[in-house]
Amino acid sequence: MEQALSCSYRIARAGAIPFSPPLASPFSHHRNNPLSSSIITLRRKRFFEKFISKMANYEGQVSSGSSDVRSGNMIFEPILDDAVFRFDCSADDRDAAYPSISFLNSRDRETPITNNTHKVPSYIPRFECLLEQQVVQLELPAGTSLYGTGEVSGQLERTGKRVFTWNTDAWGYGPGTSSLYQSHPWVLAVLPNGEALGILADTTRRCEIDLRKESTIRFISPSSYPVITFGPFASPTEVLISLSKAIGTVFMPPKWSLGYQQCRWSYLSDQRVLEVAKTFREKSIPCDVIWMDIDYMDGFRCFTFDKERFRDPKSLVEGLHYSGFKGIWMLDPGIKQEKGYFVYDSGSENDVWVQKADGTPFVGDVWPGPCVFPDYAQSKVRAWWANLVKDFVSNGVDGIWNDMNEPAVFKTVTKTMPESNVHRGDGELGGCQTHSFYHNVYGLLMARSTYEGMKLANENKRPFVLTRAGFSGSQRYAATWTGDNLSTWEHLHMSISMVLQLGLSGQPLSGPDIGGFAGNATPRLFGRWMGVGSLFPFCRGHSEAGTTDHEPWSFGEEVGSTLAA
Q1: How many domains is the chain partitioned into structurally?
Q2: Going by DSSP bridges, is the β-strand pair 369-372/289-292 parallel, antiparallel, or unpaired?
Q3: CATH code of the domain containing 353
Q4: Same domain for 296 and 399?
């Protein structure tokens, strides 16, 4: 390889052969980068040479003094405890693996346990190559039921389904939509004997989870990646406890965030916000939080307030607090490209934007028009954003809502930025990589930055962050909701399985837009949805601009009186 730039694509650590991704997610040459006059040349290597690995019989190959057990080229070792195993295609692949972003502590994935009882895994995956992608297949006993796969629509059991982990702005999704707002390359298997097993493909790249073959789990993704198995344990609960030791538990939310919350795209003035709050109290309908959608901003510029309609946010917050409400405000990643706008000027001065392959900031259209996007993969950018959040919270902000952070980009076929864009990430996250590497964790890293900013503002208070996009591990920083659903009975039904799937994938703090975001709910649908929604960990009514009002009293006296305390 030619001499690398100070920000070069790290293909692999020493000892591994570089790979070339498929055409669906190409690496672009990095030309004309102002950081250096050098040019990155990515030499295409046949993936086949590296990743073909056929499973041999591993019996008799376990050394009583070794935690590195070889079967063909594949290796495995216990991590965390003697029922959790890491598998890699080869020793070289293990050495070349990128750090884990999903793990609470990436070192836990890299460190074999030393006090193991020399157990070997009950089920061993097979590593193969298919069209320059690593395929990992785990065959389980006939009659195994499969669950998990994160934020997915459709039925609770995932047996027979196929999911693609690629965070996508999926307005109006249906039961067959294959990619939603979050990515969880995780499957929970319940075996015929009642035991349960979990498997995590620890890759941030686009990953196909193919469960169409009976009792078989199949992951397909570019590049080599480790897989982690958890169990089998006596129950699914024990599997999830073990998973939480790896990727972390949900953050501790403030108590006020566990009740009913009211949102609308949008309450267009501070007076309308106070009017809604007052009506809740007059009608004795329990509600703890009012949400401010994007229209509170000055021209959709993040960290600003409309000078006419929300001219005094501190007074608005004081009014809400007086009536027993908290206020949550939206922040998107798209920053308007406009000289004189303090966030854009500060970000440009500090060189925080995601770049194109030529080293210039990427510009894409979102709500404010042309926007640039913070590169949250850099610690200095996360600190920059956290300080903006800290100042923002000084206005009395109680919680923050991160939306559009897949990241969503308008006027594109893909609904996001080009995969050839460049993130100059921290080495502990994977270093400088194309967007294809960081896309699925962009929302997680934004939520982390926002959470850290709220901690800076009030270190003695529990932060509350809601994120639309996420990845395995996002629960450490934020709650989530199931995105832009529809006001239909089908979506009411799906909301139950979607919340359960997220919980079975390590994200227990979630809920849908009660009543449906798009469309007009009927009184009967809304009333039923409120009844179900009261049992969800995150309980919020929300509706789209242009629809009828979706506050509880809007559906008539019968619904309103039923919901009254």
Answers
A1: 2
A2: unpaired
A3: 3.20.20.80
A4: yes
Longest dimension (CA), the chain: 76
- Predicted confidence (pLDDT) at residue 96 exceeds the cutoff of 70: yes
Tell me: do 243 and 259 sit in the same domain.
no
| pLDDT single digits (tens) 529-562 | 999 999 999 999 999 999 999 999 999 988 878 8
On the question of pLDDT at 217 being above 80, the answer is yes
Question: How far is 180 from 173, CA to CA, in rounded Å?
Answer: 8
Active site residue 195: no
Q: Are residues 195 and 305 in the same domain?
A: no
Residue 551, φ and ψ in degrees, nearest 5: -70, 150
Q: Are residues 342 and 261 in the same domain?
A: yes
Global pTM reads: 0.89
Q: Residue 412: which pLDDT band, with cuts at 50, 70 and 90?
A: very high
Same domain, 232 and 300: no
CB 465 within 8 A of CB 399: yes
Same domain membership, residue 472 and residue 388: yes
Rounded to whole angstroms, the Cα distance separating 499 from 534 reads 13
Any catalytic annotation for residue 459?
A: no
pLDDT (0 to 100) of residue 41: 28
* Listed residue (488, 509, 540, 469) closest to 174, CA to CA: 488
Tokens of 174: 């249906």
Is it the case that residue 34 has pLDDT exceeding 70? no
Same domain as 401, residue 453: yes
The predicted pLDDT at position 207 comes to: 98
CB count in 10 Å sphere of residue 370: 12
| Residue of 484, 513, 544, 551 with catalytic role | 484
- DSSP H or E run through 444: helix 442-457
Catalytic hit among 270, 403, 419, 452: 403
Cβ pair 33, 361 in contact under 8 A: no
Instruction: Show which of 247, 264, 279 is a domain's final residue.
Output: 247
Domain assignment of residue 371, given as a range: 255-481
pLDDT tens per residue across span 342-366: 999 999 999 999 999 999 999 999 9
Judge contact between 126 and 137, C-beta under 8 A. Answer: yes
Q: Average pLDDT of 108-135?
A: 88
Both 202 and 70 in one domain: the answer is: yes
In a domain, 24, yes or no: no
What region, left, alpha or beta, does residue 172 occupy, with left being phi > 0 and alpha being psi -120 to 50 degrees?
Answer: left
Return the pLDDT at 67.
37
Residues in CB range of 489: below 8 A, 6 or more apart: 525
What is the structure's pLDDT at 274?
A: 98
Q: Examine the residue annotation and report whether 484 is marked as an active-site residue of this protein.
A: yes
Given the residues 93, 295, 332, 406, the one annotated as active site: 406
Q: What is the pLDDT of residue 188?
A: 99
Within-domain flag for 313: yes
Q: How far is CA 23 from the centre of its chain?
A: 25
